[in-house]
Structures are given as C-alpha cells and as structure tokens.
Amino acid sequence: MKPNSNMNMPPIFLLINILLVSATLVVSQTIVKTLPGYPGPLPFKLETGYIGVGEDEAVQLFYYFVESEGNPEEDPLIVWLAGGPGCGTLRAFFYEIGPMQIQYGKYMDNVPALQLDPNSWTKVANVIYLDAPTLTGYSYTKTPEAIRSSDTASASQTAEFMRKFVRDHPKFLKNPMYVTGISYSGIVIPMITEELYKGNDEGLEPIVNIQGYMAGNPLTDKTGDINSRLEYAYRVALISQELYEVTKKDCDGDYAEADSNNLQCMLDLDEVNKRVGDVNIQQILDPDCDSATNLVRNGNPGSRKSLRAANPIKMRPSLTSTFCRGDYYNYATLWANDEGVMKALNVRQGTVKEWLLCNLDMKYNYGKPSMPQYEFNIQSSVVYHQKLTDRNCRALIFSGDHDMMVPHVGTRNWIKTLNLSITESNWEAYYANGQDAGYKTTYGKNNYSLVFATVKGAGHTAPEFKPSECFEMVKRWFAHRPI
C-alpha cells in the first residue's frame, strides 16, 4: 500500500498544510450577517460560497445557503435550480421561494430595498440556491475549456456539488435531501437524483440521505411538452376546436417536429400562431410584453427584453401603463451588479464582469441542438424518472395551470408513461387559505411515490404567481402529509 505522504512530513510542515487547507475552506464559505438594501442584521442564517466541481475543479459553482428558520437539524436539505439553463438563482431568492423580496420603487444603500418574504420555503427547509451550470449568476470557470456545459455535464457536476456540500457541512448529512427546481431544470433534476442514488450504491463518500425530488412546470420530454401546447391552447379557448382538430390531422399530431415540406401543416401552424401571437406564453393572463409567441419555436423563459438592466427602472410603473412582469427583474440585476452587494456576498473579485438574470449563450430554444456555451444533449429525461420508480423515492411534480410554456397537459402525458398506479387521490382538489388551490393526483409503485398537482391560476414559475399556495403545498409534502 502506498504510504500517506503526510506521514513523511515534519510536524511543522504538516501543521502549515492543515492550516492552508482550513484557510481555503474558510475563504470558500462566508456567513453573511447583513445585506445592502435590508435594514439591520438578517433574521436568518445566510451563507454564500463556492464549491469546485468537474475536472481539476475548474468549474466554481456559487451558492446561497439559508438554514431552515424552523428546525434546521431535522428539516429537509434541498438544492434549487432556476432553469434556463443559465438563469441565476437570485430569481428564486427574490421572486419565487426565497427569504427576501424586492420593494419595487424603494431604494436603500443605493440599491433596491429588500423586505422579508412571509412565504419563504426556508421556513420549512434548508435551501441551497445554486448558480448552475458554469457561467450562471456568480459562478465562473478557471479555464476557458470548462465554460461549455451540457445537460449531462450539468447533472453530473450538480450531483458532485451536493456530495461535496454535505462533506463540508457534515451536520446536514442526516437531513433528508431533495433535488428541486423549475422549468428547464426538469431535464436535469431526475438525472441528478438518480446520480446521487447511484453514487450511494457505489459507496461514494459521503453517503447522502437522498429521499427524492421536486420539479415545477418541468421541461421533461422536449418534443412531447412542445406538442402539448396546441392541445392546451385549445383547452383554454385560445384556438377553436376546428383549428385544433384540422392542425392535429394535417400535422399528424406532431408540431415540434413537423415536416416543413408539409405545406398544409405549415399553414395550419401559422394560423394557430396568429391566434396566440399576442398571448403571454408563460402566464396566459398576463400582458404580453415580448415578441410574438410561436407555440412551436418559443423556447425556455427569461424575458428577452429584461435580461440586462441597461435602463433600470427607478419607480413603480404607473397605474395606466402596461404591467410587464419582466421589468421587475431589472431590480435584481441592479442589486446584483452593485459593488457593495458583491462585497457583502464575498463574490471573488474579477470572476464576473456582469451579473445577468439569464445567460443568453445557454438559453434553450426548441430546434437548436446547442448554444455557444451549452449543448442540449438530452431530449427527454423520462427514462431517469422511470429508473427512479425502482428506488425508495418520493417525487412532487407541480404545474401552474396558466402556463403555456410547459403545459400541465404534456406533464400528465409523460407521467402516464411511467405505468404507476393511482393511489389516494385522482384529480382531487387541495386547499390553501380555505380556498381551492389546485388539483392533485397521487401515484405509487412499491417504494416510489409521485404527487402531481396543478396550481390554480399560476403561470410557468408557479411560486412567483401563487406564493402562499405553493408554500402550503410543499410544507405539507415535506412533512409527509397529504397536500
């Protein structure tokens, strides 16, 4: 057996070596006591840091970690992925499931003012908000070769991140672990989850207490999810029954991969797009502020005109102006690019020139096999869901029912292919704040369980539109109670 090189070190050099390793660890983890824009000390424990993954740890993934405000020793440990791919997780931190909200139109410390979010998931879970993959948010790479990522690379690196995170935070080793996220993250969430189970099987250290996964409006089967947009548009009365049926017939039910030489199908799709062109694909009840919607070619979200804050808004829009939800994201961009904010978060100097809500060099659009910094090399992650049905595993899949980007129709279609048995409920209402919050169906197979729930009135990023309903849903699910 090869001797441990530390055994041959003089004691003084061994001590120096230990101190250097410890110093590196400290530098990578920062306890943040205050944040620009928020008055006084933070009433929750926030840690930021980096964990290196991939070959030679060339990819440095940045994270925000908020310990549970409930019972951190026992509450679940979850990682949240914002999707895109390439969308910074501050979107979740401020707009979806995080402990803070932006006070629109108010400023403090020369940045947008912050306030606490009463529906933060950190009240019931230890949450890691992860900037992944590669050049997402504040994450960076040490070599140009490591910049380009892919579905498979992203999943592998995130699984590696989670194992290293609990290695560096051993007090959370026993907490139930869940992989969670939204939108395009639906491709990688089951892959990461299976990778963690598989790593445990192979004896990778440390063994993690992976219990399952959760995904909101998850892109999963890319072709099937895109195809389901037509049926969804018909169901919510955006296109007529006649147009839906003739398009389905002429295109043989396949719109995403429709033959461009099939002229009648192309004409039908043009007619469909004329009907929905001015509808917001991410929340059909919101005003449409982006370019015309195309049901076949519109890719994953990230408001196109608000990814950069070239002219950040300084006040609330007037009551007479059109409400554009994407404009609110400019506040996050303004906050995240402030030097005082980066210093408070201990962002490594010189690693990020500009924080972007979403990295457009990764953004998914159907029909493109790759972008300059990302390869979309998994067409469907259903096979990974199928593998997980043989595990001792829990899953929660939820869909805002006003989302036409990844409609609940397509999500239900791929869930049906898992050949699970319906157990406790079949499209039954569940309630929050005394009101119908959506509908749930529960499935099972041996030690695997899956709950599918709609969120009534919510769009693509459901917790952004219905925060209290989504909070009640996950609070019950984490506690192993019926939602």
Please bin the fraction of helical residues. Answer: 25-40%
Strand portion: 15-25%
Low-confidence stretches: 1-26, 301-320
Average of pLDDT? 90
Provide the structure class. alpha/beta
Q: Work out the number of β strands.
A: 18
Q: Biggest sheet, in brief?
A: 13 strands, mixed
Shape: globular
Describe this protein's structure.
GO terms for molecular function: acyltransferase activity, transferring groups other than amino-acyl groups; serine-type carboxypeptidase activity. InterPro entries: AB_hydrolase_fold, Peptidase_S10, Ser_caboxypep_his_AS. It holds the Pfam family Peptidase_S10. This is Peptidase S10, serine carboxypeptidase, Alpha/Beta hydrolase fold protein. Keywords: Carboxypeptidase, Glycoprotein, Hydrolase, Protease, Signal. By secondary structure, this protein is an alpha/beta fold. Strands 1, 2, 3, 4, 7, 8, 10, 11, 14, 15, 16, 17 and 18 form a 13-stranded mixed beta sheet that branches. Strand 12 and strand 13 form a beta hairpin. The protein is globular. The N terminus is likely disordered.
In short:
This protein has 483 residues and is α/β, with parallel strands linked by helices.
